[in-house]
Design a protein that fits this description.
Two copies of one chain form a homodimer. By secondary structure, chain A is mainly β. Chain A contains two helices and seven strands. The first copy, chain A, has a four-stranded mixed sheet, covered by helices on one side. A two-stranded antiparallel ribbon of chain A has the order 3-4. Chain A is globular, with a radius of gyration of 18 Å. The interface of A and B includes residues 36, 52, 88, 119 and 122 of A. β7 of chain A pairs antiparallel with β5 of chain B, so a sheet runs across the interface. Chains A, B: Its main location: cytoplasm. Chains A, B: Its cofactor is Mg(2+); Zn(2+).
């Protein structure tokens, strides 16, 4: 195994999956909308932290992928957090252009991606008189 | 393989990983903060969609897990979306109590989980006179 380019303490904390990757949830810094979910290996995380240009590991292409390298829809990284069990990253970015390769702002936009519509909250939380 | 309890069209769309799971990003409906990331198999998604009580598949315990079943920190599901490549869910919830088992509101809170602090945005975006 190649030595990790990460700080040794961080490299020790990270809980990678069987493919050596951690999940990265990418959030729009301005709106807090979740834009996309991607994956990082140690090298992708190292480059993301040191360059503030969001860099992922493409599972389909099996290589590093600088977001926007061909589309121009780059992400400037504002903040990176690790979750309580150290297998997921929260990456806040300034997004240039759409984040989704389909051209939508986020990967969760458009009607056919809605599986369950908002019910207005639990019944007990509704103002009296509303059904 | 057991037949999926999901609507056949949705069951056909879902891109599960090698363990039969899809990633679920859980967001606070009120604040839009990312609370946690968990995993769902078809049964967990089916129960989440039909009961609006967030239900996941625990990879460590290898069983279904109704969020809050022991802690009381349940999640009422407001909305569920699927992403463009159908391997990630975005689940908006009304969270009762803290979402994280460590007692913090989200799994990304607390200082030691911060890997990279906000730099205030790309240099070009800063008001003149600021460094």
């Amino acid at each position: 195994m190649t030595e990790s380019p990460l700080d040794p303490e961080l490299a020790r904390r990270l809980k990678r999956n069987a493919d050596g990757l951690v999940c990265a949830v990418v959030v729009d810094h301005e709106t807090s909308d979740v834009l996309m979910v991607a994956w990082m290996d140690d090298e992708a995380l190292h480059r993301t932290l040191t360059t503030r240009r969001a860099t992922y590991f493409s599972r389909s292409r099996q290589r590093l992928w600088v977001k926007g390298e061909t589309s121009g829809h780059v992400q400037h990284v504002r903040e990176v957090r690790l979750d309580c069990d150290a297998d997921t990253l929260l990456v806040r970015v300034d997004q240039t252009g759409p984040a989704c390769h389909t051209g939508t702002r986020s990967c969760f936009d458009t009607g056919e991606r809605l599986l369950l519509a908002d019910d207005g909250g639990p019944a007990g939380a509704r103002p009296a008189g509303q059904v």
